[in-house]
Specification:
Largest sheet: 6 strands, mixed
Structural class: alpha+beta
Number of strands: 9
Number of domains: 1
Order of helices and strands: EEHEEEHEEEHHEH
Strand content: 15-25%
Distance between the termini: 26 Å
Helix content: 10-25%
Number of helices: 5
Shape: globular
Length: 182
Amino acid sequence: MVLFSYVVEHDTGYAPNPYGGICTLVQCKYSKGNRRNIIEMAEEGDWIIGTGGKGKRSAGLGKIVYLMRVDKKIPLSRYTTEPAYQGREDQRPMDNIANRYALISSSYFYFGQNSLPIRMLPQSLIGHPIEKKGPGYRKDFTEAFISSLISWFSKTYKKGVYGRPSYDTRADERLRHKCDKK
């Protein structure tokens, strides 16, 4: 089990896309050139955490935008044509999709504009910095840390959506799966 951490520089509801009872990561964090990125590297059962960036289209530094488990990893060519994902904004056909994937989760916590301040996590989880600063990603977390993080989220929140994207004017019609705090 691996935890990937990266900065969600543009939290618009597109990538990640938390609508319709699933969260997908499709049109972001893929390889550019010879450098592999999260979408190619993550496997089913891995986790992804997106933290806020400093720009106005993100949640801000020191905040958790979302956390998702990769429940499915399918080729992008299949994702863009499969009826189960029809109508999702990130499901549009694209050129140059060879070796690209869609990461799909039904086990996620999406906070968006109600992003969770990292300082609100238990002290035992703050000891290892979660945030990745700048471009790229990090995945230097121990399995014990990942298990503790997932356990805390699962005990504290129900899976689902807790807020609109930090910068999204179309959220009202798309936000259909809102959960309340336990």
